[in-house]
Structures are given as C-alpha cells and as structure tokens.
Amino acid sequence: MPPRGQESHYYKGVDPLLDGVTDGILVVDGAWRVSWLNAVLERWVGRPREGLIGRLLWEALPELADSPFAAAWRRALAERTLVLLEDFLAPAGVWLESRAFPSGEGLVVFTRDVTERRLVENERVRLLSAEHVARTAIDGERARFQEMLMLAPTAVSITRGPEHRFVFSNLLHRRFYGNRELVGLPVREALPELAGQGVFEVMDRVYASGCTYVGRERLVKVPREGGGREEMFFDIAYHPQRDSAERVEGVAIFAYDVTDLVRSRRTAEALASDLGHSEARFRSLVAAMTDITWASPPSGEFIEDQPTWRAFTGQTREELLGWGWLDAVHPEDRERVARTWGEALAACTPFEQEYRLRGADGAYRHMFARAVPVVEKDGSVREWVGALRDVTRKRLAETELERLLAREQRHAAQLQGLASAALVISEADSIEHMLKAITEQAREVIGAHQAITSLVLEGDWAMARGAVSVSDKYASWRDWDVRLDGSGIHSWVCRLNLPMRLSQHELESHPAWRGFNRHTTPRAPPLRGWLGAPLVGRDGRNMGLIQLTDRNEGDFSPEDEAILVQLARMASVAIENTRLMAEAQAANRAKDEFLAVMSHELRTPLTAVLGWTQMLRGRQGDARALEKGLGVIERNARALAQLIEDVLDVSRIITGKLTLHKKGVEWVGVVQAAVEVVRAHAEQKGVSLSLEVAVGGNGSAVLVGDPSRLQQVCWNLLVNAVKFTPSGGQVRVRVARGEREVLLQVTDTGKGIRSEFLPHLFERFWQADGSATREHGGLGLGLAIVHHLVGLHGGDVRAESAGEGRGATFTVTLPVPAVLPEVHAEALPGAEAAPGVKLDGVQVLLVEDSPDARELIALMLRERGARVRTANTASEAMDRLQESMPDVLVSDIGLPGEDGHALLRRVRAWAEARDQWVPAIALTAYAGAEDARRAYRAGFQVHMAKPLEPVALLEAVARLAGRTDVDARVG
Predict the structure, then answer these.
(1) Phi-psi region for residue 210, left (φ > 0), alpha (ψ -120 to 50) or beta?
(2) pTM of structure
C-alpha cells in the first residue's frame, strides 16, 4: 500500500491496466476518504472520478451511506477482515457482488456486475414453477388412472424387485386377504398362506424370463375370518413390468374371480351324472311312469289305437295308424328317426332316440323315446313296447346354462382383456402407437372383424388421425388409409358424446345409414352391424370415437357396449396424458430455443455498442471514426428497441390487451411512408425497391384502422422482404383497390420459402432456420404480429412462394367500409418532425434518477432554448419546485423511494394551493398499454416510452408549454 497522500499518484501508473478489468475497484483510507476508483466503478456511480478522489466516501456518494454495502464495508474496516455481500445497487440499476478487505490502514473494494446471473436465476425459478405445474397435471391424470384400477372389478396388484415387494393393491385384491395392508411388504412376507400353492414360483419365473403367464381357473386357498381357508378359483394373468431400459422391474397381476362359474359348472356336471344314473335305473319301467306309452307289432307300425299318443299329438286314429305317426315328428328329425327305428327292428335291439314331436297345439316338444322288444321263449319278438318322456325343460335349461356359461366366460375374458389393454395402452410412446394399440385391443377384446379409431382435435375432421385393425377376413383392407369426414353415424356419437349400437337389421333398414361407408368411402369394407363409443376429454369435449363392425358371432350386445365405453374412457385419459406430456416437452423446447435466440439477438447489438464505445474512447479527435461509431451505436440501439417492442406486442397479443385506435386512414399514404422509411436500408444493401399504385379514381384508398399499427404491418413486410433478398435483387410493392377491399402485395426475388414451411410462417417464435449458423437474425415475431394485426382489422394475410431460391409474395387484404370516414393527417413512424420547434424561455423541471439519461434529455431541451432544472428524486424535485414554478414537468416514473405518480400528486396539490397548474410528461421504460393508462389516470398529459424519440419529446414539451400548435406524436 503506498504512503498516505500518494495513493492517487500510485494508481495513476496502473490506470490503463485496472480500467480494463471488468470488476469495479474502490480504494478508501482509514478515514473513509476516496483514494482511487477505476473506470468501471466510475461508470456505475455515474460521476467522474476527479470529483470523488480525496472526498469523504459518504459525502461524495451519499446514496451509498444507507445501503447494505455501507454496513458491510464498515464491518470489514472495523474488524480488519474480508466481507462478501451481493445486493442491488439502485443508482446503477444493477446487482453487484462486493468483496471488501483491509489494505494498509484503509479498505479495497472489488465489485462485480451479477445482474445477468440473477436474471437467469429468476427465469430458472419461473421455468421450474411451470414445470411443476405441468408435472402436477400429469400426476393428477396418473391418480385418476390409479383410481380406475383401484375400483376395477378385477383383483389388481403390482410388485417391484425380485422379492416382489407390493407397490399397489386395489380394493378387491385386499378384500380377498382380509383387507390387510400389503403395500411395502414382500409377497412372501405379506401373504405367507400362499406358500406351496405355486404362486411364488410363477412370479419368480415371470420376473426372470420377462414372459407373460396366463392361468385358467387356478385354485388358490385364501384365508377367511375366524380361521381356515377357502378354495377359490381365478383366471390369473402375470405381466412383466419394464423400466425405460426395457429391463424387468416388477410384475403386474390381474386375477378374475371365477369361483362361482367353476362351482356352477361342477354342479351342472353332477346333476347330469345323477340324471344319467336315474335314467339307467328306471329304464325298464313301464309306460305308466311316462307321459306317452305305445305298443306295436314286430313290423314296427301302429295297427291299433294309441290313446296317449293321440292325446299328445292331436292325430286321429286313422292318421297315426301304419307309419302315419311319423307325420307328427319334426321334418328335420323324421328321416333320422325312421332310419334308427328300422335298424332297431332289424337287429332286435332296444331303440333310444331324442327327437322333436309336434303337440296338439302345433308346437314341437323335445321327447326322449325308448322302445324295447318283448321276446318269446324261442327268441322271436312278440311286440315292441315304447314310452316317450317330455324333456323339453331339461333341454331348454341345458341350452340356457350353456348360453350363460358362454356369456360369463366371454365377459370374464373381456374384463381380463380390458385390464391387459390398459397396460398395452399405457406403454405406447406416441399418439400414433397409442391409436394403433387402442384399435387392436378394442377389436380383440370385443371380438370383431373390423375396428377403427379416429382422433379428432378441435372438431376438425380434415386433420383427424386414425388407425385401422382388421382380421384375416378383411386382409385386403389392412393397408386402408381411412379418411372419415365425421358425417352419418360418426357425427351422432361425436356430437352427443354417447355410445351407439346397431344390429345388422337396424343398419340395413335405416335409409340414411344403409351401406353408409360404401357411399362415402367406396374402397372401405362393408358394415355388418355397428358399435361406437366416443373419446371424451376431461373438459367434456369430444376427441373422436372408437367404432367396431362385423362381430365374430351375432350382433353386438349391451355387455360389448359397456366394455367398449370403459375402453374408450381409458383411451381418452391415456391420449390426454400423452398430449400433455408432448405439449410440456414442446413448451420446454420452444422456451430453450427462444431464450437462445433472444440471447443471441440481444448480445449481437450490445457487442457492437460496447465495442464502438470503447473504441471511440481511444480515438478522440478522429471525426470519421466518431461518425461511423455513432451511426453503429444508434442503429444497434434502435434494433434493441425494436426487439423489445416486438416482445411487448406479442405479450399484448397473448394476453388479449393489444387494442386499436381506429380512424379514417389513407392506405396509399401509409404504404408510401413505409416504403420511404425502408428505402435507405434497401439502397444500402443494394436491393431495388419499387412501388406501384393501382387504385384508380383520385389515386387514394380510404379504410378504417389504426394508422400506427397499419404502418407496422407494412414496415414489417418490407423489412422482411429486404432482409431475405440478396444484393442485386428486387422488392416490388403493389397497392390496389377493389370494390370492397384494398390490397397490398410485397414481392421479392430473394431466398424463397420451402413448401413445408409455408403453414408455419405466421406462428410465434417460428423460424425456417433456428440453428446457431443461421444467415438471418431475428426472434421470429414480425410475421406473427403482422398476422394478428391484420386479423384485428378484419383482413387476411397470406404467403406464396414457388420454392427455395425463387422469391416470395406476401399479400394483405383489408376491407373497405361502405361509408368512408374523414381522413385525418397524422405523423407516421419514421417521418421527420418540423425543424422549427422552438422552446426559447420555456422552463422545464426534469426529474430523472439516471445521470446519463438526465444529462442527455437536458441537453436536447437546452439546444432548443429551454431553461432546464434537474432533480434525481421526488424530494429534490419538490425543493426545485418551491424555488420557481416550471412551465412543464418531465418526470421518470421509476424513481427511488417515491415514484413519478406520487410525485405528480404532490406537485398538483402544491400548485393548486397557489391557484396554478403544471402540465406533465411521463417518461418510463414500461411501454405497455396498461402503463400508459396508469400514467393518464395519475394526471400526466403525455406518456412516452423509452428509448425516447427526440423529435417527439420536443414537440410534446412545446405543445404543453403553448409555444406551438404542432400535433406532437405521443404514446
């Protein structure tokens, strides 16, 4: 450390070295006098170092006295130790990291700008919050799916790891084991009573092999309250669960209780066995034990009356005699009965046959006939004695039992298929794979030859996606590209969000639906019965449907409809989950791409501004370098302002806060002004820019709109065309007028647009080349803003291009009102203000906390003759106000301690107490419409957004001071 009094001389030797570092450096002695500070810190405090060195720090920089940095530095000097602090430095408007440590008798402070890191951390927190919201939505859908499994009519459990530790057990599964808590326990510890029943061995085999195991009517002994075990039968499916690397991580078990089904079948078999024994036992009983008895000679025909036969069949004696009794036998059974009876007569063996016999009421009944020969001692047949017993009820009961058993088995298979379908659908990794899985599972579970799933988003059938599944019966249609338009049967299901089931007869008898798909899609397979169920989102909106036709056996049943509705609900949840995940991933990608582009687009002009600023400091006196550098700085500063304005416009569009101030506008003048603004840029690039006006009549075209926003539309299209047109190219602008519309065409000979990019041109943040090596900059917002502004004016914008390297044409069409309004002349963006604005003698009170901005604004006003007094806080402004009353108050909104709104209220109260009035202009970096409304409500006459346009500021001051009637542009 140099001796006291020699610090300044000591540091002068290293000024160039220390001024080149990025950290701010401050040196004070033990009495807190400023010994030295480098250029970085000088820029942050906004004061020259020559006026600070040698002064007490707290007097030279009073704004630091009450800041957290002052307390930290005092502690470092008092305790002679290093003290670190990170906080916000309000005068500089930056976050600083301070490191203060003692040096000699004084203190050395190193400061670093960490604003960008803090902003990045804040953005990271916001993005993590958005990610948390998306994950919460996905977790909610996962909970819904888990609730469905919890209430499923099938016992469902899921285990993890080789020890098969339970991670899920639904209500039915727990009920089988006394509602005990299973989750978290290994299966052998949770269910020890299953030992020796083969269950553990099957789970081990599925986990080791990764192959599904399905068992039919497996016997399982489950515990019961009060002790003991009950034998139950289950149809069981063991499915391996895999992780993202396709390794088996667990087993999902679906068990459907078929105990009642097995017991019913066994009871039926026992009854059938008993019936057989009874029949054998009483086979030799005489006809008195039966409903019908009869006797015939050895020849087999009836030769005498048979009273019981006649009573049952209603035949007369003459009709039954001989072989006439066969006429009462059902025509389909008659030949078989006659043949079998003839064979028994020939072999002299007992006759047994079941056939249908017509009763006296004309209805056929199932009869079991038995006849035995009465044999003489010599072995000859004397006669045949027979009996018939009505077994109709037995046959109907057996048929009904078979039907019920088949129905139960089918329903059990469908429920098991539904559970399996849930796993298959959940494992799909894309919407296309999911639609295919849904369609395949629907056809397999229900048992049909054809299945189609259609996913329709936002009700647009033209953009519908679908999947088809057909059996071998329709193998020739497996590559069928189904294209449905949502009409006919489909429209009923999707419009009402209700299932529909039609038999083949109902389908064919309806005049509108008969052969529906053959009329609309001639290459489609025919409909044979129909069953459809809607896909419904969480908000109740329809997302399409699943439809089946041509059932494997018979018509679709109510059970089929219930199963398909359940499958459609599961599919809807899975589709929405997949969409949510895809949207979250797309949002993350779009966010990352936008941040990268935004960083590039901000850093590029900032690099030019900072680089030329540093270069000009070293080339003072070089007029050419000064002129070129100022031009570069101004151009890049305007580019930064335009980027910020585009982002704000998009924010207003997204939130619906972008409004129009409509009036009569002369369209040709708007376009001409935009052409003149862009012409200089086009000539600098070597691009020819021409304008053709073909509106007829007096050469004008009047419409209703917002002049500044229409100017923005024209300017964006022209800048876009010039940007993508190489040197030597042409940009042609044409303005035309029709009976009800005006037309703007911007045609260039530039880079052109590939056909697959055309549909995305007007999307926010979209760029054909988003890579780091892209040729043209920008955030991809200009065309999206154009599209929205044209839409707000009731018009249309479209893009056309013959391909890459063949140029492009953008066409804007705007409606013309039936009654033309009066056109008001208005200074449009880019137009120069009248140079004669004078402010001689105008007293202005300028309140601005930024020293650089305060100095610049004061200089602009003084050059036009104004007398300017300045203040950097509201309190200081009130002191200046009491010295003398200004003609105009110009105040920044964001002031330290007390903002501009509060200051204006104090000023107005002070002035009104003296019967005076002070007009006011609000300056702010908050450029939104709501910010402007707040300023006007607070009492400001003019709201101007930073960066300021000097001409607009001068005109506003002149107008409020009453020195000119110029129509200053404000906003």
Answers:
(1) left
(2) 0.37
